[in-house]
Design brief:
720 residues, mainly beta, Immunoglobulin-like, 6 domains, 5-stranded mixed beta sheet, 7 helices, elongated, carbohydrate binding, FRAS1-related extracellular matrix protein 1, disulfide bond
Length: 720
């Protein structure tokens, strides 16, 4: 149906024609009809949803949140008369504070109106208004005519100014064998968790500052590499996996991260340690005689040993037959308890008394639990016929075919073994040298009480009691003679001048604690002049001015190794720079360990940072705050050579500087200045504001600006 009012409005103005006649005369005429519209409809508040914004910000008053409608009034006449202004902010017109107490619906439609919060701790703000069409009084809200002002509500959310907190940060060490044959460690909320009361878990982000060095992170749901970061929700869902790279023979890794929220709040950088253990055979070949009885295979676990681990053992018959030529324990699973790093797996060799060919079988390690397999996963055992003429006293010991006596003069102090050991013990690491004086020690007693003189004719005397200890057995093997002694007394090797010298003599000292010391010497007197060292003040007064000769120079490769000097009856240890007298205090220092990833040299630990090149000031701050140490100092030329090699022969910052007092150079860690290695005179350069030292080509020092310029690697150090 057509609205008559609209039809009339469309036809306006209207005209009427008429005729007037008296019968004689007729007159035509017209008159105009005018219609005047009357506004009788009230404006309606059709939207009043309010605003929500973060404190200190601005939000538009759009038609989506505030709108008046009136069928017979244009938007420029629909007006909001303000009865009360906002208390904690301002209404703005085109970005400026609204000066008048009204605005129109057209202003709202044009996006000219906005609310700006003034900050503070308020949570609710509002303004009240009366709507009008400038003709009628009153307006309609929810179908009812209203004359009183209504409120427009503004909700203010507080800005999140607190960073997420780390509530769990533990070393991840539960390594698993994956379906594809790789090994991996799942990083979950058990080891890494952050909490932020103002942020959802999927918005708590762990930003990776430095990824793992030897493996990589993977998202198991997508299969993609993780390079930027991951969320707390990902950790809760157990989808973050660290994959061990088998090409690196390491047992630990780490990643550096910083936890953040969407507003940019971030906690201090943290490091997540990843550690695992590795299980393998100690040796891969055994040759034993048929009458050896019992053969013990040593299986070792290295790396992280705080948790338990398991390994399965499989026996493969090659030419030997299980049950006929040898028997094994029914259990094929070996358990490493927490802290344990060595297990023995016994095999009983069957002696049948028959002449027969040599027999071979293999022992294979597989299916590790909470550990990875090392490279030596298989041991080949060869059983020699005891009547075939091949067996000797050596073979019947059940050891391998390597020379039992060894030829090494240099001995490393043990860095610790899971197997219980006596205090002050040392382990052999054979390094063949062309030396005339040779000593091999395996888990020996306190070595400073063990002295060595001319071994061509020798005897053992118990220290401080005057007794002569006679050997319990004598073993002759070609030109070698091994004397075995049993007991717990302290022994000293003394010269026996009662007879002529023999060509060579070997002595093996074994006490009831399974300690063994083997000694070899020859009659040569020449010693290569490869390295020299002066005796420490503790040496005998008649020898204080003696310069000692060593078979090899002390280099970083020989760090930790021991040398016994016959002429002075002392042990010396290589610290990577020079030979130092070895004492029980030296032993205590050598048993200490550097943090994971750090390198030990002398009495300090060193860490090279190459992934983030920085200025000297930033490097000094990072060493102090993140690595709890200081920029490295240099004490000698040999020390500088070691650091230059440690850095990969690339420039790096050290701690030498004169920032406090120009021209007065000092070390960042406060150590005394005992050595410098300038390329140019620092006196001229310091006047130019170059107050910090960069090690450059061939380890030479160059003064540089501490704050700006090219950024470089740096070396941090800390006391052991």
């Amino acid at each position: 149906m057509v609205n008559q009012e609209h039809m009339l409005k469309a036809a306006l103005p209207l005209f009427a024609r008429f005729i007037i006649s008296n019968g004689l005369k007729t007159k035509h005429g017209t008159f105009e009809i005018m219609l005047e519209t009357v506004d009788q409809a009230l404006p309606i508040v059709s939207r009043n949803k309010g605003l929500r914004l973060v404190e200190g910000t601005m939000a538009l008053l759009s038609p989506d949140v505030l709108q008046l409608s009136d069928a017979d009034t244009s938007s420029k006449n629909l007006t909001f008369l303000l009865a009360q202004l906002p208390q904690y902010g301002h209404l703005c017109y085109r970005g400026a504070v609204l000066l008048q107490h009204n605005f129109t619906q057209q202003d709202v439609d044009n996006m000219d109106m906005a609310y700006r919060h003034g900050g503070g701790g308020s949570q609710i703000d509002r303004f009240t208004f009366v709507a009008t069409d400038r003709t009628n009084e009153g307006f309609i809200v929810d179908g009812k005519v209203q004359m009183e002002p209504v409120a427009f509500t503004i909700q203010v959310d507080h800005l999140d100014k607190t960073a997420p907190k780390i509530v769990h940060l533990h070393c991840s060490s539960d390594v698993e064998l994956l379906k594809n044959g790789n090994y991996g460690i799942y990083i979950t909320a058990r080891s890494l968790k952050a909490y932020d009361p103002d942020t959802e878990e999927d918005q708590v982000i762990f930003k990776i500052l430095r990824g793992p060095r030897y493996g990589y992170l993977e998202n198991i749901t997508t299969g993609g590499f993780i390079q930027e970061g991951f969320s707390q929700k990902d950790l809760n869902g157990k989808i973050i996996l660290y994959v061990v790279n088998p090409s690196w023979e390491v047992n630990s890794d780490s990643l550096e991260f910083q936890v953040t929220d969407p507003t940019g709040n971030s906690a201090a950088p943290q490091t997540l340690e990843l550690r695992w253990s590795q299980i393998e055979m100690q040796q891969t070949e055994y040759t034993v005689c048929e009458n050896v009885g019992m053969l013990s295979l040593k299986i070792t676990r290295s790396g992280h040993s705080i948790d338990s681990a398991f390994i399965a053992v499989k026996v493969i018959e090659v030419s030997a037959t299980l049950g006929k030529d040898f028997t094994v324990t029914p259990s094929k699973l070996i358990q490493f308890d927490p802290g344990m790093s060595t297990k023995m797996w016994n095999i009983a060799i069957t002696y049948d008394g028959l002449e027969e060919d040599d027999e071979v079988f293999e022992v294979v390690l597989n299916s590790p639990v909470n550990a990875i397999l090392g490279t030596r996963t298989k041991a080949v055992v060869k059983i020699l016929d005891s009547k075939g003429g091949q067996c000797s006293s050596f073979h019947s010991s059940g050891q391998n075919k390597h020379n039992l006596w060894g030829t090494g003069t240099l001995l490393p102090v043990s860095s610790g073994s899971s197997s219980p050991s006596n205090p002050g013990t040392v382990h052999l690491e054979g390094i063949p040298l062309s030396s005339s004086k040779e000593i091999m020690v395996q888990r020996g007693d306190v070595l400073q009480e063990f002295s060595l003189v001319n071994l061509s004719r020798m005897r053992l005397r118990a220290i401080r009691n005057g007794k002569i200890v006679h050997p319990s057995s004598v073993l002759r093997n070609g030109t070698n003679v091994a004397f075995k002694y049993h007991g717990l007394v302290s022994l000293r090797v003394e010269a026996d001048t009662s007879s002529a010298n023999a060509n060579k003599a070997n002595k093996s000292i074994i006490n009831q604690g399974q300690t063994k010391i083997s000694v070899i010497s020859s009659r040569k007197t020449e010693v290569p002049q490869a390295d020299k060292a002066e005796l420490m003040p503790e040496s005998h007064s008649s020898q204080q001015d003696l310069v000692l000769s060593f078979p090899k120079s002390c280099t970083p490769d020989l760090e930790g190794l021991l040398h016994f000097e016959e002429s002075t009856q002392n042990l010396f240890q290589c610290d990577g720079i020079s030979w130092k007298l070895w004492t029980s205090k030296s032993k205590d220092v050598s048993m200490k360990k550097c943090p994971s990833g750090w390198s030990h040299h002398g009495s300090r630990c060193y860490f090279l940072i190459t992934d983030q090149k920085v200025s000297w000031n930033a490097a000094a701050r990072a060493c102090r705050e993140h690595y709890l140490g200081s920029l490295a100092s240099v004490i000698s030329k040999q020390h500088m050579q070691w650091l230059w090699g440690f850095s990969g022969r690339k420039p790096f910052w050290i701690g030498f500087n004169d920032q406090v007092s120009p021209g007065h150079w000092e070390w960042h860690g406060g150590e005394p200045v005992t050595f410098t290695n300038w390329r140019r005179s620092p006196s001229r350069l310091s006047k130019q504001g170059k107050n910090c030292v960069l090690v450059q080509r061939r380890g030479k020092w160059q003064a540089k600006d501490c704050r700006k310029g090219t950024k470089h690697n740096y070396v941090c150090s800390r006391k052991l």
